[in-house]
Amino acid sequence: MGSVGDAYGNAMCESFFATLECELLDRRRFVSQAEARRACFSFIEGWYNPARLHSARCYRSPMTYEAEMQDTGLVA
User: Fold this and answer.
1) Less packed terminus of the chain by CB within 10 Å, N or C?
2) Residue-wise burial string across 31-43, b where 16 or more C-beta atoms lie within 10 A, e elsewhere
3) By C-alpha distance, which of 62, 44, 14 is closest to 36?
4) First and final CA of the chain: distance in angstroms?
């Protein structure tokens, strides 16, 4: 994370919310707040964490990358 006064601390969060807004929230309308919460949970746990490809990880999903790191013993 960044130090006080620079923008690095929020960069990951801003990137996530930009993706969430572009991929989910701008594409549909929700009938209730509960429906919106379920859709956000489903987006995060069903696609964002397990399946999206990440350029900093050689276009592998976060779950694939973590599994590979555990297999090689680089992560506890």
Assistant:
1) C
2) eeeeeeeeeeeeb
3) 44
4) 21
Two tokens, residue 63: 């779950």
**What DSSP assignment string belongs to the chain?**
---TTSSHHHHHHHHHHHHHHHHTGGG---SSHHHHHHHHHHHIIIIITTT--BGGGTTB-HHHHHHHHHHHTS--
**How do the domains of the chain map onto residue ranges?**
8-72
- Taking only the tens place, the pLDDT of each residue in 11-56 is 778 888 998 999 898 888 999 999 999 999 999 999 888 888 888 7
CA–CA dist 53, 60 (Å, integer): 5
